[in-house]
## 1
Amino acid sequence: MVEKPGKTAQEMARDHREVAVSEFFEKNRHLLGYDNPTKALLTVIKELVDNSLDACEETRILPRVWIEIKPDGADRFRVMVKDNGPGMTDKQIPLALGKLLYGSKFFKLRQSRGTQGIGASGTILYSQLTTGKPTTIIASTGNGKTSYYEIMIDVKKNDPEIVSHQFIEDGKIWHGMKVEMTIEGRYVESRKSVPEYIKQVAIANPYANITFDGPNGRVEFPRTANELPPLPKEIKPHPYGVELGILRRMLKSSKSRTVASFLMNDFSRVGGGSAKEICKLADIDSKISPQRLEITDTEKLFKAMQKTKLIRPPTDCLSPLGEDLLIKGLKKEFKAEFFASVTRPPAVYRGNPFQIEVAVAYGGELPQEGSIKVLRITNRVPLLYQEGDCAITKSIITTDWRRYGLSQSGRSIPVGPAVIIVHLASVWVPYISESKQAVASYPVIIKEIKLALQGIGRNLQRHVSGKRKAEMQKKRKEIFDRYLPEVAKAVGKLTDKKPEPILNKLKGILKNYAKVSEDGRGKEKTENSG
Amino acid sequence: MVEKPGKTAQEMARDHREVAVSEFFEKNRHLLGYDNPTKALLTVIKELVDNSLDACEETRILPRVWIEIKPDGADRFRVMVKDNGPGMTDKQIPLALGKLLYGSKFFKLRQSRGTQGIGASGTILYSQLTTGKPTTIIASTGNGKTSYYEIMIDVKKNDPEIVSHQFIEDGKIWHGMKVEMTIEGRYVESRKSVPEYIKQVAIANPYANITFDGPNGRVEFPRTANELPPLPKEIKPHPYGVELGILRRMLKSSKSRTVASFLMNDFSRVGGGSAKEICKLADIDSKISPQRLEITDTEKLFKAMQKTKLIRPPTDCLSPLGEDLLIKGLKKEFKAEFFASVTRPPAVYRGNPFQIEVAVAYGGELPQEGSIKVLRITNRVPLLYQEGDCAITKSIITTDWRRYGLSQSGRSIPVGPAVIIVHLASVWVPYISESKQAVASYPVIIKEIKLALQGIGRNLQRHVSGKRKAEMQKKRKEIFDRYLPEVAKAVGKLTDKKPEPILNKLKGILKNYAKVSEDGRGKEKTENSG
């Protein structure tokens, strides 16, 4: 147990060995979102639902997702997520779920919820760590065969450990997947909870039909849209976003015969003309093999790629929600009097296309007291944790909301009866940790979010100031109404006339005035989509 | 480039493959601290210096570290870190530096700077990504042989790629290691910079001798202590900190013949009596083989381990700095009038022993304006980033500093002429990301930090209030001095006596009064270690 002090380099070398990525994340489970039992329960649901929705969309199936959470002894829950997706081939199941850093999305430049191949296998890792039990997976691709697996992860090797494997021969034809596991967790219904998460998923994915059967009963989230958004397309990297070391690797492994064709085939937005221009600027023969470039030439090529004028990356790799769906989503959950949304044109950070959409709900039955509610969404996935470190929060608190009709003290979340939803869609969302709960603060991302916020801010300001004006006029009318008889009497006395006709005349004037003011308010109403 | 919509499960399966951990961190380089050029330069220095200091301490060598940063073209730097440590065996070098998640520290419960085997190889990954160049490593273990390597990382495989390897035959006998690389970076000398980092390293490691040769010249940080702190000892896990999944794995791989001997050999603080007690409580035969336990028995054993009364984990696995070194470190860098420190007894989170030390410097030449300076240190490594998310910052802003004589508005860093240093020593520091810049907010860690802060707060309060009292008395004495002749004259007139003897009497009274007040202040001085 105790080692002698003063080891030698030889002795130290003997202690070295490889750390399996599964063992790394087991020890650092907070990096995957398993810091505490409440967050852990949410993370398990989040990862499994993300996978279900991704699979459905990729295969163009309108998603139907069932979520079940049932107590299973003290601090333990039996958790189940089932979908009507494409299922998974029998052979694929153990690797896709029983091995970390295994997947397809990591290598694709296309908007999707999952990216790293850690999420689903991470849930199994957490389940076995806290309860020692295997996870059950039942899946079928629609071919009449249903696979049944019980899986654990061999943490020292990062390999699936198949506890049980059989086919269920019940003749049923179906497609989809069901994952069921026991985990340590805590169930709450507060701000950062599973019910809140599912509610926000329903807002951001209005074409999904979700059933949640929780410890306190069953809730349905029927779909409010019947069409899937278009499938985002996979793109190739843009020359502006590539890094020198990656360019070097791409050159070495390229199948293209010349540097020019390499540029045209392996990148987006590079045509024959641009390819020649890049090579000329780099002082490189465009016809030599990409494998033959030395590091100094690679560097020259790299610099020339940055300097050559090229069209921005294509943006059909993105699938924003659109203003309609955004507002539909908000209306479904919040009884407000005013709705507005802004969609920014696509932009690019480190070569990765991204797009910001923002919507606001204001007034009505929203609570007057306290901070506004902020929904942070990335690639249709709601984020509930680490808000303080998120580029979305930072953009909100550094926007001056007092000029848009909300209260705000210093750099904080504004106060008022409002809900703001911010959606960041990107082929690669830069999260600050593997648990994917906050967006890293790239200046261009913050700039885009703030521009969108200012857009809805101006709409909000028009509505709030119109509303204030109308309220003030209403109050004035009430005061007039109250004092009109007195005024008529006084005027009658002064002019020595009967007060009744004067009162009627005064009432007539007031009526006209009120009409004008209501018309004025009516104009604002076109802004009100409520 | 464009795929048809509506893929099948079979088609999706074909796209799946393993993601090498190196490729994962290359794409997510911000997780390792490579978000931007300024932070990247700091991260490279930090990781290499951490490794040098760890190696020296483990082999009981008083550390001598040379750091060099020289511009190498636009936005590029040639970076070198050299130490007088144990060096590394020729065979070990490529794996230790050219492979991520490879090392010895991950598996040991003992305080050290490095833990995951990602740091040093991460610097090479970043260097080749941004400059395409290999890293040079020169090392010798003192056997007269000097290894020379140029290394890159095969990112797709997470394996070292040896670009060049030879022995330098110059007959020189030395031990140590030199790592040299070219990176993209930005050099600044502001708050979160390399010079600030090195300055804090010198404070937290006063027994290290550091030379920093930067773009703006050479700075020496001579050692102020000539003895290494004791080498922390490796411990075995404590039964209270183990997780069910890990216990299951430990049982399966144990070499012990019985469950009782397993408990005694593979855990700390379990003697024969406790082992029997645990087995009895779990209703398990203490003599059966640990391999034979089923999951239900494992669970019973797990619960019994938590319920049995055991001594806390040993704490010689920790190596705090000690009050003397802490205050020495502060005095070296800050000209203050008052110093105090508090060391908490060791505590435990999730079975991991940890210990909090806090020291404060106050007044003197420290700036009166602005927030106090906070130095966050974990296992002798200064943290410069992500302070907002760090348990240390959270502990400071949730402490009421107004009662201790500092200004503070709401939950913010207090204002005043003070520097506070917080050191967390632990066998496993729970960082919020792989870049290891902030401590996760475990309640027991925050509690311990706050108790230590309150301790120095009370010392500070006594000093500040004593100082205020003395200042007030001095002012009063000055006023008396000024008006004494007037008073004497007036009293003389009233009593019809000469004013001179009255003035002398009054002066005598004032002198006695002042003496008492200075004595009162003198008592406080014992608190002043300055």
## 2
Amino acid sequence: MTLNSLLLNAKDVATVVERIGRDSVMDGLIDRLTRTIRGLHSQKFQAPERAGFSYEEPEWGLLEWMPAYFQNDGTTVKLVGYHPGNPEARNLPSVLSTICVFDTSSGGLKGLVDGTLLTALRTGAASAVASRVLGHPDSTTLGIFGCGAQSVTQAQALSRVFPIERILAYDIDPHTAATASERLSFIGRPVELFSTAERERMLERCDILCTCTSAEPGTGPVLPEFDPRDHLHINAVGSDFAEKLEVPVDLLRKSLVCPDFRGQAMVEGECQQLSEEEIGPDFCELLENEERYHSHRSSLTVFDSTGWAVEDHVAASFILELARECGVGQDVSLDNIAPDPKDPYSMLGNPTAASPASGSRVAVVTTS
Amino acid sequence: MTLNSLLLNAKDVATVVERIGRDSVMDGLIDRLTRTIRGLHSQKFQAPERAGFSYEEPEWGLLEWMPAYFQNDGTTVKLVGYHPGNPEARNLPSVLSTICVFDTSSGGLKGLVDGTLLTALRTGAASAVASRVLGHPDSTTLGIFGCGAQSVTQAQALSRVFPIERILAYDIDPHTAATASERLSFIGRPVELFSTAERERMLERCDILCTCTSAEPGTGPVLPEFDPRDHLHINAVGSDFAEKLEVPVDLLRKSLVCPDFRGQAMVEGECQQLSEEEIGPDFCELLENEERYHSHRSSLTVFDSTGWAVEDHVAASFILELARECGVGQDVSLDNIAPDPKDPYSMLGNPTAASPASGSRVAVVTTS
């Protein structure tokens, strides 16, 4: 048996998305993520809290692993680095990631995918999935608070599942704000930009709000006090580290707060600000018993999105399938099989550099 | 900045080893591993116990991650699967692994290496490094108990650092025993095979013994009672799972037992059989204060080798360097860099499949 491993670098992922279509990929991912989470109760799965290295030397950084095992659907480990010095020191993104997908039966590597675009796609899709349960179905006004990379797929994903007519956008950085409309233009909705002085007015108009900022830990929550619409649903995407907070605790306490993954959200998400009893249903419970939560569509709700390994698994498996259909990517077959599994050298030719006396001194004596 | 990631599949690793020479690679690895472990106190590093998924469905298997961070030398995560049903069900090895090496400063992926041959190489090298401290320098008779894949590099590595004149070999499986001489022939030492009835006599002749069996957990220890030479040094390689044991506890208690990694060895290694006070210095202590332990060269010693992420890191980094010198492997540049780090879609061309009304409905309204 040969194990075929498909490698998709960032350009390959972009090519697949371009060929299939940005919206078709997003729609497919929203659908796949919904069905996977709904079906989790029917198979064994394990997805522990992410863990990793946090270090100060040679410079401040994180390298984390996010593993997810599924009885029927493969096993995925996402390896993700966060190195905030990258943009200035190396002209590299601060977040770099690689997603490894394994066959659960054999442990063979099925695919390796660059995680940059996939992370944005799955985070957008997750907000759409949660918002479809908790957001008001007639939501027409979408707010985007923080206009970096994650905002693009948030705005896209929400526009795919709600009758969004306008996007209201704010960023603290003037350049990021000024270029936001261009990044969001493909969504086909008018974008209104707001200044810092105007941002409360913006927040008060939103039916759905996505917060996707990258504030320093300890400086938040970044949202100012404002008077929300009765049915406001917030997707809080930016909180993914201890003391990195976006939503004021008063607003959280008035809302049904649903974490993607309870244990992780209590350490890294908005749920840091809440006691256990103040936290609502998690992603699994929300989708398994969807009707139970529809009454919350007319009141305040928050999806506390810290990023869940299950989402990475679904996104990577989906893009690998699409890539195989499109014939994109390199077949790298990392796990080539040796002719004699008992001889680690059996893939080499005849030995050419053994010990000096090789050959002449070999004598096999059997005493048994 | 472009990140160049080098991918080495199993055939690439074999090609590098063939070009450089099996013994030159082993010698280099023994040297590199010695220097790295000796120098660990001078830099920050973290190498937690391996963790992973253990599951019964769809069939019994393990998928584990073995991470190691180094302040100055990169960060490595080995992903390793153990699926004992592979040989029969799929004609695949039971152990498959992939080693990912990252740049610690940026988190960028530097290399991906198939781990099969590397695991055998580093396990052999580790035994040589430990044996050089603890084994009798005049050791001429090497015992190999269990003649599968790991035995090949054990016998090779020990023959590189001791004046080995003969290899005594035993395996419970007649076919594995019968083919052992062929696998070991490149080492250039006579191989004497022993039957089950003769194995105590074999064990009693050894100066150094490597146990590398794969007995079922709960059925060991696999070594019979025997009367060892006064200075016998054992490299116990096969114990790497709860209740998987090779060395009888009486023999352990008469020996200085040195684990590669204390926390892991107490859970998975021979040290499971000992209390904390009965365990000797670990690999770091052994190499940092080598002279302190030379007196043990004339008495009983055991190196409890469970497999340490530091060894995988050294082996993968070394083979990646050699591969670059040889021009072997694929440059896969997994982390291609998008033109606009704030736009996850910026590696795509112009949008071609946006929402139906794309373009005509785009209107940018700035209110700030």
## 3
Amino acid sequence: MIKVAVDGMGGDYAPQTIVDGAVEAALAYTDIDEIVIVGREDAIKRELKKHKVQGGQISIHHASEVIDMGDSPVKAIKKKKDSSLAVCIDLLKRKEVDAVISAGNTGAVVAGATLNLGLLPGVTRPGIAITFPTLHGISLALDVGANIDPSAHHLVQYAIMGEAYSRFLLKKKKPAVALLNIGEEESKGTEVLQDAYRMLRDSGINFIGNIEGRDFFGGKADCIVCDGFVGNVVLKMIESIIEVFVSLVSNEIKKDFLAKIGAFFCQNAFESIRRQTNYEEAGGAPLLGVDGVVIIGHGISSARAIRNAIRTGANMVENQVNNHIIEELKIREQNHHTGSANPTQKPTA
Amino acid sequence: MIKVAVDGMGGDYAPQTIVDGAVEAALAYTDIDEIVIVGREDAIKRELKKHKVQGGQISIHHASEVIDMGDSPVKAIKKKKDSSLAVCIDLLKRKEVDAVISAGNTGAVVAGATLNLGLLPGVTRPGIAITFPTLHGISLALDVGANIDPSAHHLVQYAIMGEAYSRFLLKKKKPAVALLNIGEEESKGTEVLQDAYRMLRDSGINFIGNIEGRDFFGGKADCIVCDGFVGNVVLKMIESIIEVFVSLVSNEIKKDFLAKIGAFFCQNAFESIRRQTNYEEAGGAPLLGVDGVVIIGHGISSARAIRNAIRTGANMVENQVNNHIIEELKIREQNHHTGSANPTQKPTA
């Protein structure tokens, strides 16, 4: 029995694309037993009526308030107790659902999940992970914005969580983990990175060392660990790159009659690249380290993006990724001297 | 009379591509009176013999030692006094040349220039700037690797230096300067960035606020200011992006017969994009803030890249960019309360 709650009011095109995406997911995925759309009942009902598939897997859970994109995250989550996001997280906390998907205010999702769900045993800071296409398949990068000034210990936790995600969800056998740095040598980068390098080398995971920006899309690393600042800059760059290239190609092709004909024949190839590099296909970004499955969608999420984010949430539940993370952290922390910045949060099991 | 010294032994393909590039520059640029190739005389002579244009604008200045890519920058520059790089910088210091170009060990170039030339009045840390193509012309970004943990004051200096470079060398009338951050609001990012934001707002330059990774190639900002860590990651990503896209496009096109034909017609357009995004055309990266014109080339510099880097160095000399930087720093520091981390280095003029 997998139940997923979707923040019906979160995202630039909510509730429409959220409801559309939930319906798409309900039609596509028979392993998901229920999709609960949380938000203003009237608005969500209105959207649902546009679809033929009412009832069945889809249900509505009313929430009267909305957290806006511009709201201060911590303030909003504390004040708007009946917001669609706060109610989603509450349903997850009370185990009435197994996963939450929100394309709303990212800061509020992180704050809400951290404050209300708490962290997994062994975790001191959550991190947002994204998957992205490389020349050799899909890779994972984290953190991309939850923690802009991480300690070495936080980075090590990100590595362990990302490794577990790569193994148990992306089904990679022995994921190669790397630190994003400005050079390959151990001595490169900030002290925090140098410390993290040493800790990771001794952690027992398949740590392949530092990689540079030029290796980001090469696929050498299955899991790239970085601070949330550089991760966020890079993430947003990736999102824009395809558009930039499409513009560059269009500009060039406009200048040249033969190229116009050529582009016509190439359009399937271009479309395929666009699809590979499109955030819609990525399926949202898991917030790793919180005690529950939380998937963050892009603010501009389309129905397709929401559908894929729901898929990712269900995958995390089915593959018990959080249990594996707890296990991995326990093993690595105890056996491989990664240290702990917060001993009170060590595994209690 | 413009005289340029080129580090003949610096770079992965030195001395060959360096000599080739120097010869290309000598043939192409009549405003450059002399190009001094510094390094092992025999090796450079051997390369020069392959060209018909001996003598004339090109001369050789012997230096017996070589700083390798793997050498520790500060140690190497202090120990290898007769290295091609140290001798180049020495020629610049003694005003026997007006500019130095090196595609060697970047850290050693930064250390050598900083230690031996000193900094311009008003500057507390040098920064490496790069130019890159956007959807609306060429933009500048700095720092991309000299200073991975800058203070707010350093960032403000980078902004002022980059603004002057954009104005007096890239000939932009009122360059828009932005901070690279994880959100547009003043409250985003680290404390250092928040402080820099406030200082820049009051500095009198055309500061347009924060921009995110997705705006990097949009051309909204003429000059993007960032710390050397994120700048370096982004720089190396940019360099690899075109290769990644070429690979993606080739893979897709191979699958599809029609696309193969299409690609044939598109090849001029593709080639034009490759040229626009190629580091070779960028003309090296000026090291701004040191007391002298120093251009850093990519380690893998081709002859064309070296030629363009020589062009950039000569442009900096002709446009008196460093004098303008001194002036700008004096005005901004005195009138706009950007503060100074090191009052002893304030303008003495």
